[in-house]
């Protein structure tokens, strides 16, 4: 492995299992899972977001890791400019532009590189796992010469995701099925575009396949990239999660201790017919592409 920091960037849409997968990769020796790093500035510095608690249980601003990282990068003074560049350059609609080299791309890339380098310097980690899920950030990173990026595109049946979004979860409000599925389509398309541009740095993993055989599926990705010989999960799907330094993400990021990973098909029984119909109708052109059936099991 080269001396450059390694960044494993998880992309896709929310409620696809990226938090759990990020936490698992974060259990590798020399790895740190930082959650949805994009929101460090809003949540951790400005307090303008759904929560400001680090995965270690303290406020992000008081966390032993993030407090020194933020000082190193000049927060809070630099935050307005960083957030402005995020808004203008790193939204999902900007993927095509970020895949094309430009002065704007270089500026956005430097922001990300400096942040990852500060995390490595202060944490002692050599692998940073970012479950930010924004394909434009993944596209920007793939052109970096200062970090060694890998993009893991995680997806799940959009009907299962719509059912998950039907109810609020801790600090995350509910979302209607049409909106969740529209985001699902946009994020899959954008993530796949990154994969076509950088096939050697990109892998796609369906949550259903991961949940059925976590050690084999995740282990194959990690081994393929030369990051680990095996995934930190047993052949029976059991793993032990340690406290982490995720700045935000699914509330499940705060769960520690033993976990058992297994397929979750409860949505087939609990999702109202309208939820399944709306999600399937919007996502229909992409269901077959990703191995999902319009009717029946995946």
From TrEMBL:
It comes from the Bacteria. Gene3D superfamilies: P-loop containing nucleotide triphosphate hydrolases. InterPro entries: P-loop_NTPase (IPR027417). SUPFAM superfamilies: P-loop containing nucleoside triphosphate hydrolases (SSF52540). It holds the Pfam family Sulfotransfer_3. This is Sulfotransferase family protein. It comes from Actinocatenispora sera.
